[in-house]
Amino acid sequence: MATRLKKTGGALAAITLAGSLAIQTVGGFEGLKLYAYRDVVGIWTACYGETKGIKPGMKFSKADCDNMLIDSLVEHEEGMRRCLKQPDALPIETYVAGVSLTYNIGIGGFCGSTVARKLNAGDIRGACDAFLMWDKAKGKKIRGLTIRREAERALCLKGIA
Q: Which of 57, 106, 152, 155 has the least CB density, counted as fewest CB within 10 Å?
């Protein structure tokens, strides 16, 4: 599938369909905030949901946030791929849904998840259904996460429709 996102000198180069879909998907779920804020469980966050290195009072331009998103998606996609036996065999929509989930729950969360286990077993439908398990933060069900997981599940299932 060769779906890697590529960044060259702060700009996208030769972005693939999967990369483009991942940017649109994650950006759409996360929204854009050009300043540091505490998320629903108190974690300092900025831009499209970045948490790494974010501290109170930080401010960003849209270009800064776009570059951070691309860098994070590359990192999370590579991490997701390491956990999957045959990532290039997945339908593109399923793959992009996986990148979105990995971006949101982290590489360790994804690699230890039922989603990854079922994808590796060839059970794409079961993997898509398992997205719905990830609608909590600190043990509390979060409406926004429920909505996101339902949308990711629908995208995931579109790949096998």
A: 57
